[in-house]
Amino acid sequence: MVEVVFGENATGSLKLAQAYGKGAYLGGAVGVILHEDGREAAQEEIEAALKEARAREKAAWESAIPLGGNAADVFSFPLALSVGDISEDGVGARRAGVLRRLMTGEPEDASAAVCEKAAANLSKIQARLRAGESVRIWYSHQSDEMCGLYWLVAQLAAWQIPAGQVFLVRLPDWQGGDVRHGSWGDVAPGEWGHFLPLQRQASCENLEQIARGWAALQAENAPLRAVVNGSLCGVPEDFYDFWILQAIAAQEETFYEGKLAVQILEKYRLGIGAAWIALRVENLVQGGRLAVQEEAPEGKLPYHRWLRKTGNGI
């Protein structure tokens, strides 16, 4: 079974999930964070926290359902397809350009490397499906994962892969109680197997509808794509600005940009990454609504800087 996800965190977690829970629990390294304010924890506090963490890990292992397979079955496409130009088919130079814009502070060739690996993965999947294997696509209502589903199904349609070889697993919005995962990247290795009952075989009509939907999104080629009321649609570049501006308004006069991004992601759960927030914040800086109080230290990513409100509309 070919397994497909759309983010690096999901890739690592899924690979671990293939054998997670198989055999007796042997234990492993466990780390805990007790105080985020710099206070030093007492030894008794550390030991109690470690004991609790080990108990949780053991329980997760024993309740897990191993997925089976091996790491070579897992293919990732972390292409951030909710952002930027999607008019080209497959994985090309335009996608590399979008990723380069999002990967500020990374090496110059990082975005090209991501696209080259994605193109290679696409070729490998095509060969395996033509040989008769099936593919299982893990997706959610998170915008990049939903776009990934649409994009990949469009490739399958172009290859004329029968619907009988395609299986879909959508992450539910709520997992019970107050547990909520925004994307498959949030799912722990011991949890993946519990979502297998949600797997469904795709129908011809379903795949055709998704492929047509991607073609329509390509023709529109909006600056962004978002899931609105359950539907994937094109939206303007400032679509998320309302929430970003709300979060900025709640900050002190001078604030740390990295902390702002974390607060936005945790509070509003918009399904976007910190990279897009950084781009929109930089747009506010360039527009004079924010000013840079202190640049990021040398060697640090750009969002490790302090910003100041200018009083110009915020």
What is this structure, in a nutshell?
By secondary structure, the protein is an alpha/beta fold.
Annotation, overall tally of beta strands: 10
Global geometry = globular
Distance between the termini: 51 Å
Give me the Rg, rounded: 21 Å
The number of distinct helices, counting runs of at least 4 residues, comes to 9
Largest sheet: 5 strands, mixed
Uncertain regions: pLDDT < 50 for 5+ in a row? none
How would you state the average pLDDT, rounded? 92
Q: What is the helical fraction, as a range of percent?
A: 40-55%
Structural class: alpha/beta
**What string gives the helices and strands in order?**
EHHEHHEHEEHEEHEHHEE
Strand content: 5-15%
Which strands sit side by side, in order, in the main sheet?
Answer: 2-1-3-4-5
Domain DUF1835: 68-161
Organism: Candidatus Alectryocaccomicrobium excrementavium
Protein name: DUF1835 domain-containing protein
Domain DUF3658: 197-296
Describe the structure.
- It is a single chain.
- This protein is of the alpha/beta class.
- The chain contains nine helices and ten strands.
- The chain has helices at 8-17, 43-63, 93-102, 110-130, 143-159, 204-220, 241-249, 257-268, 274-286; strands at 2-5, 74-76, 135-139, 166-170, 200-201, 224-228, 231-235, 254-256, 290-294, 306-309.
- The chain has a five-stranded mixed sheet, with helices on both faces. The protein has a three-stranded antiparallel sheet with strand order 8-10-9. The chain has a two-stranded antiparallel ribbon with strand order 6-7.
- β3 (135-139), α5 (143-159) and β4 form a beta-alpha-beta unit.
- The longest helix has 21 residues, at 43-63.
- It is globular, with a radius of gyration of 21 Å.
- It starts with a strand and ends in a 5-residue tail after the last strand.
